[in-house]
Amino acid sequence: RPVVELRGAGKSYGNIRALHGVDLAVHPGKVTCVLGDNGAGKSTLIKIVSGLHQHTEGEVLVDGEPVRFTTPREALDRGIATVYQDLATVPLMPVWRNFFLGSEMTKGPWPVRRLDIPRMKRTADEELRNMGIVLDDLEQPIGTLSGGQRQCVAIARAVYFGARVLILDEPTAALGVKQSGVVLKYIAAARDRGLGVIFITHNPHHAYMVGDHFSVLRLGTLELSAERSEISLEE
Ligand code: ADP
Ligand code: ADP
């Protein structure tokens, strides 16, 4: 069954109806792509799932149970991690330190804070490698990495800290062809580790490369909701 589900969900800001009547399901090990032009309601959808805003109509369910998160922390505690476009990384801090940044926020399966520095470094290195991210030097400031690599570190971090659902906000929007390819590979790696992924993008090509399900928003409502098999040319 879906980890996260929207049933007729919507959100109004005063009398502006940003999102209306949206049905969406996120399954473990699957990528749900949400497409749409500016103003379509993509950010609003992220916000009502990640705890930044509350929905004003319909239901948001986690593991089949209706929820109404009031803070991102509550969403995180249920395993819903969001990687924003501008990323919560500190540019001048080493890569390994960034990997553990905010770890005191998350429940995590183990007492992360008790790791000593050498073990933090080793863990960051191992986890990044597991996800296929090979960096020669974890001491370098994360700001020296490309935008694509920083996205990958943020994804690997969420996976390590036990996220079950990963919400990616336009992770490839600012990237070139090659870096986009790298990020799409990590999205696939997260999916293969069993995470449910909500991939927000306005790029249909990127969506098609990793997507299992496609939802297209237009002016706040679903214009299309299709499984891969319904739109695929593959037989
Ligand atoms: P997208 O992320 O697809 O560009 P948004 O969810 O940001 O779309 O916006 C959907 C609609 O809701 C737009 O018309 C936008 O102006 C409006 N909107 C978004 N956030 C707010 C807000 N906090 N207050 C009022 N209107 C908003
Ligand atoms: P909320 O009122 O749901 O907490 P925000 O804190 O995001 O919403 O926004 C506060 C106010 O800023 C909104 O009520 C709205 O007037 C304005 N606002 C923010 N983002 C937008 C947007 N994208 N379009 C129009 N108005 C916006």
Shape: globular
- Uncertain segments: none
Structural class: alpha/beta
Q: Quick one: how many beta strands?
A: 10
Termini distance? 26 Å
Radius of gyration: 18 Å
Q: What percentage of amino acids are in beta strands?
A: 25-35%
Number of helices: 8
- Indicate the multimeric state: single chain
- The averaged pLDDT comes out at 89
Order of helices and strands: EEEHEEHEHHHEHEHEEH
Task: Please describe the biggest sheet, giving its number of strands, its sense, and whether it closes into a barrel.
Answer: 6 strands, mixed
Keywords: ATP-binding, Nucleotide-binding
GO molecular function, one term: ATP hydrolysis activity
Domain ABC transporter: 4-235
Protein name: Sugar ABC transporter ATP-binding protein
Written account of the structure:
Helices cover 32% and strands 26% of the residues. It is built from 8 helices and 10 strands. A 6-stranded mixed sheet has the order 6-7-8-3-9-10, sandwiched between helices. Strands 2-1-4-5 form a 4-stranded antiparallel sheet, with helices on one face. β4 and β5 form a beta hairpin. The longest helix has 16 residues. It starts with a strand and ends with a helix. It binds adenosine-5'-diphosphate (ADP) (2 copies). The site of one adenosine-5'-diphosphate has 11 residues, from β2 and α1. This is Sugar ABC transporter ATP-binding protein.
